[in-house]
Amino acid sequence: MNPLLSVRDLTLLYGPEKGCQGVSFDLYPGEVLGIVGESGSGKSTLLSVLSGRNMPDTGQVTYHCPQTGSIDLYRASEAQRRNLLRTQWGFVEQNPRDGLRMNVSAGANIGERLMAQGVRHYGQLRQAGLQWLKQVEIDPARIDDLPRTFSGGMQQRLQIARNLVSSPKLMFMDEPTGGLDVSVQAHLLDLLRGLVRELQLAVIIVTHDLAVARLLADRLMVMRRSRVVEAGLTDQILDDPQHAYSQLLVSSVLQP
Amino acid sequence: MSVQVEPSSIEAGYNFAYLDEQTKRSLRRGLLKAVAIPGYQVPFGGREMPLPYGWGTGGMQVTAAVLGRDDVLKVIDQGADDTTNAVSIRRFFTRTAGVETTERTDSATIIQTRHRIPETPLRSGQIMVYQVPIPEPLRFIEPSDSETRAMHALNDYGVMHVKLYEDIATYGHIATTYAYPVMVDQRYVMDPSPIPKFDNPKLHMSPALMLFGAGREKRLYALPPYTRVKSLDFEDHPFELPSWDQSCAFCGSTESYLDELIVDDEGTRQFVCSDTDYCSQRCNEQEARA
Hints:
The structure holds two protein chains of two kinds. In chain A, 39% of the residues lie in helices and 26% in strands. Chain A is an alpha/beta fold. In chain A, the strands form two sheets. A six-stranded mixed sheet of chain A has the order 6-7-8-3-9-10, with helices on both faces. In chain A, helix 4 crosses helix 5 (122-135) and helix 4 (106-116) packs parallel to helix 6 (152-164). The termini of chain A are far apart. Chain B has helices spanning 21-36, 57-66, 84-97, 145-153, 158-171, 200-203, 276-289; strands spanning 42-43, 72-77, 100-101, 110-114, 127-131, 182-184, 188-190, 209-214, 219-223, 229-231, 258-262, 269-273. Chain B has a seven-stranded mixed sheet with strand order 1-9-8-5-4-2-3. A three-stranded antiparallel sheet of chain B has the order 7-6-10. Chain B has a two-stranded antiparallel sheet with strand order 11-12. In chain B, helix 1 crosses helix 2 (57-66). Chain B is globular, with a radius of gyration of 20 Å.
């Protein structure tokens, strides 16, 4: 099987050991990669470079598109990158307010990607909106409500629906469960796990919560001071951490 | 109807049409670029005009830049030749440029307008100058200017339909009635200034040159003659012209755009043409026939 995303020696530094450096990995279709580490270790920087929002100092990211062939992310034109980000990729922000248009209805939020792709049929957009609200367990009757009237968990689910409507192959998630209370977190994680398996999504998920990582991720990368200190299968890293920092991270989790 | 200017009424001490020649040149350079790229917004160095922003400073600067000594100027405000904005701008150019003015659409060479296109069909050689408050059609959904410029450059116009979607979801039809966004020559989305959507079809393949000036935002854009202009819509909710049962109380027109007036304390309503020149021409014709 060919990898979906090949990352080679990716570096973006804001200062010594601030940012990320020397990151290389392959991501395969349908695989969930977790990036864990403490605050300031470079997780979010890595995610923003991987998704093409920021340009790296050095390094290469190649996306192997099943339909159109390979794209070198940083050599591609801005138009190609934008097109990629709103069709085959998705980005779920930590704060749904950053990922949603708060002043237009839930239905318009879900339909936006389709409209950007040239769908000009109101009935089809409406249908897609209703279907995806149901898929993420929001009452379809709320299709015309503004996202600001939704609870935090619902906003996050709406953001996921808005990204999934274009049937992406790859999703980036930046702490998708941050700021939600534990029961809502569990619900969201359950939903995500189902969607990932059902849609064969590849996901790169940044989190500082090892429980989230264990539940969702197939593989883990542990970051510290801008470097990946350990990478491997999730269970392997969480049950038998090799690097001193990974050991510290795993042992710091409160056992109920 | 047209008024020749007495030399004594021209104010001394002003350059022709108020602005200095270098400023008018820079404006013309901007306008040439705008005409070359229909619908594209060209920044320009806007000058202070002797009236506040929002009263037509953008349109006046464009008019000043294209005005020649032989031009005949008409100024309309919401279709009317006799409202404050129209009267004062017309007097401004009478006093600073000494050009001939008119109220008749067919004898004017330059028509500066606020929020209407005349009912009388425009002809080749005429120039329409629009006063524009917010030139950026994407502004309502994207506050960042660098982002909207990127969206124009990359033809990334999906969000324009978000607004129309919201209209249909809320009201059951596209409820935008003025400043209705258009696609120019299949490339740039443009705000046609706050003209009623009733006037949008008049933009399509018009024989006249259309120039747009936004004074506060300092942007110029243009439609050269015979440019394709399409109002945005959905396949299952196509662009529709508004229609109404009333006709003009003065000239009886059923085709023109009507203003609703309340004429007494009982709340009696009357509908009259918003285009005063069109209305009075029709009245004159009817009198002559009777």
